[in-house]
Design goal:
Layout (H helix, E strand, L loop, with lengths): L6 H4 L11 E3 L3 E4 L5 E3 L6 E2 L50 H4 L11 E5 L7 H6 L3 E6 L7 E2 L12 E7 L8 H11 E12 L14 H11 L2 E7 L5 H7 L8 H26 L4 H8 L2 E7 L5
Parallel strand pairs: 4-7, 5-6, 5-8, 6-7, 8-9
Antiparallel strand pairs: 1-2, 2-3, 9-11, 10-11
Helix pairs in contact: 4-5, 6-7
Bound molecules: zinc ion.
The site of zinc ion has 8 residues, from loops.
Length: 304
């Protein structure tokens, strides 16, 4: 919770409204520049969310190429053969897979910070600490978060984090391009961002922009990131997403999943038949057209 934040994290906090420094108080924090007071929430999270509307200006370069590498492929993620961190004995939390964990960076020192942007109930804490990071959990509203914050206006100094995790968050942002700019700002040069974003999932009630492969690439590139991998989920297909998220409202999930099984089998057979007729390997294309979400791995260029 917020009142358990380390001094190292406190040193990196800024006012989400004006960017001024914060002073720690008994009630929370106050901004030395604009005087805003940021309280602890009822659950003890430091509430650094915006308290009033704030202007944020974006600029666009029209006509520039989207793909920095024209032959960039959008194939499913393969396990990293040279992982920096050994996760073989660590279970993957919900929404992450062993394939994704194999790309996690290792903390450079015991002072390295990582931001779990949209940390929810804190299920990524263990895998983040396993890589040697001090975990900083920020969420817009989850009571378990250390910090309540807005992804559009991150309450951290420039170049605070070595690693940002952003799992199934981007679709909830009203202005995802702003969040990407903010994530890029608070990441250290050569830092990494890893995340997932909804694609062919039903509406989440509060989701704004579900991202296609090109949409995700565009958002990352706009933020300033170099995209390393952008992969459709093999495990989370549109049919599984539908079965889990309301195709048969109120039905127990095992029954809903059993009902879609024949369609999944026929779907795979149909694509394989098409591949045989056209004499092309269509498996990668099949997964990309059928996925419920994309995984992205990108980095901030520069000299640290
Ligand atoms: Zn301020």
């Amino acid at each position: 919770m917020g009142n358990s934040l380390s001094n190292q994290v406190w040193d990196q906090l800024i006012c989400s409204d004006c960017g001024g420094g914060l002073i720690k108080t008994n009630q929370g924090a106050s901004c030395v520049h604009c005087g805003l007071v940021f309280p602890y929430s009822a659950s003890g999270s430091l509430d650094l969310r915006l308290q009033r509307p704030k202007k944020y200006r974006l600029d666009f370069e029209l006509g520039s190429p989207l793909l920095s590498e024209p032959d960039f492929n959008f194939n499913p993620l393969q396990v990293n053969k040279n992982p920096q961190v050994d996760y073989s004995n660590v279970p993957a939390p919900r929404h992450l897979t062993k394939d994704i964990l194999s790309y996690f960076p290792k903390a450079k020192s015991n002072a390295s910070l990582m931001l779990d942007l949209g940390s929810g109930s804190g299920i990524h804490k263990q895998v983040s600490q396993h890589a040697g990071f001090e975990w900083v959990g920020m969420d817009y509203e989850a009571p378990q978060a250390q910090i309540l914050g807005d992804g559009h206006s991150l309450p951290f100094k420039d170049e605070t984090f070595e690693f940002i995790l952003c799992v199934t968050v981007l679709q909830y942002l009203r202005y995802p391009l702003v969040m990407m700019r903010e994530a890029h700002r608070v990441l250290k040069p050569n830092g990494k961002i890893i995340g997932t974003v909804a694609f062919l999932e039903p509406s989440h009630g509060t989701s704004f922009y579900h991202h296609s492969h090109l949409g995700t690439y565009n958002s990352l590139q706009y933020g300033g990131f170099k995209v390393e991998h952008l992969a459709p989920s093999k495990e989370w297909s549109v049919l599984i997403a539908l079965a889990n998220m309301g195709l048969f409202h109120g039905m127990p999930r095992p029954i809903a999943q059993a009902l879609i099984t024949p369609l999944q089998i026929f779907h795979k057979f149909w694509w394989q038949l098409g591949g045989l007729i056209s004499r092309r390997n269509v498996e990668q294309t099949r997964i990309r057209h059928f996925t419920g979400s994309f995984t992205f791995i990108a980095s901030k260029q520069g000299v640290s």
